[in-house]
Amino acid sequence: MAHQTWIYRTGAALTLVLLLAGCGGFKKATPKNFTRSLNAYYGNHDDCLYPQGLHFPYEESTAAGSADHPKGLDALVAAGLLKRLEDRDIHVIRYALTAYGSRVPPRFCYGHRVVTSIDSFTPPAAVNGQQVSQVDYHYKMMDVPGWADSDPMRKAFPAFAKSTSADAHDRTTLVLSMNGWYVPE
């Protein structure tokens, strides 16, 4: 009887140790934890052509030496999101949203990332009192709208072309918190 009690107690203790060891698993630096954290972040953060957004109507001067304007506006015209009006008398080109373009946010977001693999990561190191790791990963862009999926858009926006390619990859810093790994804002 004493032998059987010892076996039950030993089994219960081992089970408790295994359960407690598993509780901190989400804080370990593993590809699975990094993938989960990155996908949670990118599920709520779309990639956009203009991260700061543009205000419309947008005007730019056609006078000599004034070529400081957001690139790709003519590609957005070709995609049907903007209309381009030129006033030669005052040397101004005005871009305005079309009815279709007004349904798209002014940042012109084109989808979100889904991490497909973790290629490498640095061992967690203390930076400003927090554990930090640099994570290299491959991803696939999901929910790309029809207006964005064209060669003229890829030519006008190289970052968009890179992010929608079959070999899209990036590097992100992840920080460890009490709730696991996260992407700092």
Describe the overall structure.
This protein has two domains: 94 residues, no CATH class; 46 residues, no CATH class. The relative contact order is 0.18. 28% of the residues lie in helices and 29% in strands. About 6% of the residues have low confidence. It is elongated, with a radius of gyration of 25 Å. With 185 residues, it is an alpha+beta fold. The strands form two sheets. Strands 4, 5, 6, 7 and 8 form a five-stranded antiparallel beta sheet that branches.
Topology overview:
Elements (H helix, E strand, L loop, with lengths): L1 H22 L7 H12 L15 E4 L11 H6 L3 E6 L4 E6 L14 E10 L3 E3 L2 E13 L8 H6 L1 H6 L5 E9 L2 E3 L3
Antiparallel strand pairs: 1-3, 2-3, 4-6, 5-6, 6-7, 7-8
Given the helix and strand composition, which structural class is it? alpha+beta
Overall 3D geometry? elongated
Indicate the mean pLDDT: 86
Q: How large, in whole angstroms, is the Cα Rg? A: 25 Å
| Integer count of domains | 2
Total number of β-strand segments?
A: 8
Low-confidence parts, pLDDT < 50 over ≥5 residues?
11-22
Our estimate of the beta-strand percent is 25-35%
| Oligomeric description of these chains | single chain
Would you list the SSEs in sequence order as H and E?
Answer: HHEHEEEEEHHEE
Put simply, the count of helices is 5
- From the N-terminal CA to the C-terminal CA, the straight-line distance is 60 Å
The helix fraction, in percent, is 25-40%
Q: Describe the biggest sheet?
A: 5 strands, antiparallel
